[in-house]
Design brief:
- The chain has 387 residues and is mainly β.
- It contains two helices and 18 strands.
- The protein has an 18-stranded antiparallel beta sheet, sandwiched between helices.
- β16 and β17 form a beta hairpin.
- The protein is globular.
- The two termini are 22 Å apart.
């Protein structure tokens, strides 16, 4: 999850509703786990604006709150995470701000095993213009909210039909790419065994932008059809998706393959490897939500170049986790490439890696060491490295 800062009144109300529902439902549950962490610190920089001339030094005091909640119950399942940080610029170069994010999914069981209702919110920050350095002036709140029902019914003992509908609202603080989305999905799932299944899925989505940034109408329809295969073994869980996506709008039409692979392998009693890879014809809002799902929620701005343009997005991430009695190690590498259909100046390719070492010093004291590196190229004129 990412951060909680004042985006728009509507977005804040939605995030508050998610939190309120969780508090109201925090009664007896089949299983529930809550983790809370607080932090405080300070950062000093000799170039807070990341400019080539007239550099300004600044000291920033910070206070952070991280929350993770997972709940499984007969009527409500919840998966919520938040990582928030309040920053005060002691020399008043910028105003006080809250950065970070929140990602939450609530699933209400209206009719057990037949009808559920899902509420999902992804809230965080993106750069107004990804070609320039991250500063408070180039950082904006971003919120993707969706809700709708899921209906299931059986055709025989091994075949299930799945119907779902979603209404979504996408809001950016500064970029003119706010939109409403209406989608429906029809799926047919066949159980091949107790541990494997095959599915056929079709999705139609209508995307309508609040404002158009071009002389043509930016609204478009997106249709996807794909097959999926899932298998769960004693040590391996995997899902493969393969199909095609087509986008139709005023004066434009695009199509591209849809491929995806998610793999989790238990290497030993304490080690796990995770692989996620794929390609799809998508957009900035979907990529923002996918980034939180794959990388988790933090106080960063992610890697999305925000625009109204559809994009072909390729991605690959690989992570290795090793858990010891008192020491945990996480090593990850990720690569992504986005090609805008019209705005080639925002095409981007990124390669990054990270390491996180956690050591339980005592019952009440934990030490963490983190390092990360990324190299990124945007368009033909911008490239940078970050440690």
């Amino acid at each position: 999850m990412k951060k909680i800062r004042s985006l728009a009144v509507a977005s804040n109300v939605r995030t508050g509703l998610v939190a309120g529902v969780l508090l109201a439902a925090a009664g007896p549950a089949t299983a529930q786990q809550v983790e809370i962490a607080v932090s405080a610190g300070a950062t000093h920089t000799d170039n807070v604006g990341r400019v080539a001339a007239d550099e300004t030094s600044e000291t920033i005091a910070t206070a952070g709150l991280a929350v993770a909640l997972q709940r499984e119950g007969s009527r409500l399942d919840a998966d919520v995470a938040a990582d928030l940080q309040w920053r005060k610029y002691l020399d008043d170069t910028f105003g006080d701000e809250v950065v970070g994010g929140l990602a939450g999914t609530l699933v209400f069981s209206l009719v057990p095993d037949r009808l559920t209702w899902t509420v999902q919110d992804n809230y965080g920050q993106t750069l107004v213009d990804r070609r320039f350095a991250e500063t408070p002036d180039n950082r904006q709140d971003t919120n993707v909210f969706s809700t709708g029902p899921d209906l299931y019914f059986l055709l025989g003992e091994r075949t299930r039909v799945e119907l779902s509908a979603r209404w979504s609202d996408v809001a950016y603080e500064d970029t003119e790419a706010d939109s409403e989305r209406y989608s429906g999905t029809l799926g047919l799932v066949r159980a091949l065994s107790s541990r494997s299944s095959l599915g056929l899925n079709g999705t139609f989505e209508r995307i309508e932008f609040d404002d158009s940034t071009s002389v043509i109408d930016s609204d478009y329809d997106r249709v996807s059809g794909y097959a999926s295969f899932r298998v769960q073994g004693a040590r391996t869980e995997a899902e493969f998706r393969g199909g095609y996506t087509k986008v139709d709008g005023a004066s434009r039409s695009y199509d591209a393959p849809l491929l995806g692979l998610s793999l989790t392998r238990q290497l030993g009693a304490r080690s796990t490897v995770e692989l996620n890879a794929g390609t799809n014809l998508t957009d900035a809002a979907d990529e923002f939500a996918r980034g939180q799902a794959l990388a988790g929620v933090d106080a960063g701005t992610g890697t999305v170049a925000v625009s109204q343009d559809p994009m072909q997005s390729d991605y690959l991430s690989l992570g290795l986790s090793v858990e010891g009695a008192r020491t945990n190690l996480r090593v990850g590498i990720d690569w992504s490439k986005d090609e805008q259909e019209n705005l080639s100046s925002l095409d981007r390719e990124r390669l990054g890696g990270s390491l996180l070492l956690t050591r339980q010093m005592t019952r009440r004291l934990t030490a963490r060491l983190f390092g990360g590196y990324a190299t990124e190229e945007i368009g033909l004129a911008t490239d940078f490295d970050e440690w």
